[in-house]
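hi!! sorry for the late reply, been swamped w classes. u asked for the two structures so here they r. pasted raw, havent cleaned anything up. first the sequence of the first protein and right below it the tokens
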Amino acid sequence: MKVTVIGAGNVGATVAECVARKDMVQEVVMVDIKDGVPQGKALDMVESSPIHGFDTYITGTTDYEDTADSEVCIITAGLPRKPGMSRDDLLAKNANIVKSVTEQFVAHSPDATIIVVSNPLDVMTYVAYEASGFPAERVMGMAGVLDTARYRAFIANELGVSVRDIQALLMGGHGDTMVPLPRYTTIGGIPLPQWLDDETIDAIVERTKGGGGEIVDLMGTSAWYAPGAAAAEMTEAIIKDNGRVLPAAAYVDGEYDLEGFFIGVPIVLGAGGVEEIIEVELNDDERALLDTSAEHVQANLDTLQRLIDEGEVK
């Protein structure tokens, strides 16, 4: 079995290493446009395999033929936003990148499942979906696993309990409009509101929403350890076909009265990709937050369509 990671930057290399250390596939292939980088990072990881004790072989390449017959593809390719670059500029550039790499990949692995990590996440997942021609269940975005990991980490730090005992759910778009759901958050089966007061929970929720920005402010670039681990966890669920219940950006077709785009929802994830979208009961406040998040995702899609019409995205 083979997993492909497109993009050998910080996030892509971390995904590749996390997947390899789970020792669940025969090969991980990293693809990048910069010759030498994926090969060098792959070799470095292979040389660590006797220490970590994994047998998965890691290769680096610039040739998509080397990715043939992959079961899973994780797309991390894209540009960070630079000074002076508008959001439209970033969306156009990354849409063109994601479209190109998706088309090159699916030509060699028509039966794969795609996980998109590139930002802006919800729109880039839609771009990959359109470019691949795959059924919607075989394309998804990695956001919710990362966001819930941050949320759970902050709760664990606040309470001094193990992260292993915390179950949590977030919904909505990736970013400031995400919708953490404290009512569906438990520690050892005990609901979060029995552990913390509303003010403390609200502070943790707000920190979670800004979790990526907090890291950028600290070190001047975006995170890679937690995003890489999150994408690897989703990959494991697909490879092992173990029906994990995880939050992910999935294509909604009437669920939650939403339709025609990718947004964060709880899913059952297995070998078939998104095997089910789970509809949880939302109160009025939670529903309003989800609707606001959906409006934000739709606005980004409208921007994408305008850029296509203007020829900025080809």
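now the second protein. again sequence first, tokens right under
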Amino acid sequence: MKTSAVVFAYHNIGVTGIECLLQAGVEIKLVVTHQDDPDENIWFGSVAELANRHRIPVITPDNPNQADVIKHIADLQPQWFFSFYYRHMLSPELLAIPPRGAYNLHGSLLPKYRGRAPVNWAVLHGEATTGVSLHQMVEKPDAGSLIDQQAVAILPNDTAHDVFLKLTPAAKTLLDRCLPLLLTGNIEPKPLDLAQGSYFGGRKPEHGRIDWNQSAWTIHNLVRAVAPPYPGAFFDSSGRRFFLLGSHYSGETAVHSGKVCIYWADSTDGGGRAIAEDGHFYADCADNKRFRIEQLSCDGIALDHSAFKAMTGDELLLLND
């Protein structure tokens, strides 16, 4: 009998997971995915489009744990479940269906960063490493025994988007390595020690608000954790909303000691002469360090030096008055 599965999937990782299963010779009887949210920035690949190209049936239930969905899936008699970046928890009734088990690919090195938005949380906390983990699915989220992991580096100026783009090929490497062993029963799951990790919830746009009492490194981590295609880091000043949509940290000392502020600084050549057309915004922070702002906007308008000065009436936007 050919190996069969029902796949719950979304996002680039979902596309990659389905492609790896097909390459491994798995018959996918059904793909369960999400309808795209019109209010979400859809920058990633479409699981539904991939499934349609392979003539795999697709459903997009608002709740996969409804009785009719459970019956439909049970009637297909799949041997396996696989979940690749699917956003709903599966009920015990669903998880009991496949006799060979249910397995999820999670975007962290479990047991660290269990739960939602693991890449964003890892960048926010200044981690130097993250990865993908294939594990057994149980009722508790991201708590089942581990099958295998693949690590990737987080560089000091990587955004969450940069890291996510690293995870997609890492997922392929992981699945190409462990699927043949898993499908033939030649890999032994290892229980997770949940005490060595933490669970994190989902993130909302309001979580991007900047606290200027924090260090330059901490604020930089927030900026890059929520940089586009995510909503961005922001603060309010004089009734206006400013967004920092990118940053670069190199441990430089602040220019305006004792002040927390945003300002424009021209780059200089080797002789110390200003190169006006190559300047940047900078933020001096409470720890007397600064970071470069790659893009600053106000009320939806991208700012350059002249627009910033005209808007603020000064060369400095003070943030600790």
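hope this helps!! also noticed smth abt the second:
The radius of gyration is 23 Å.
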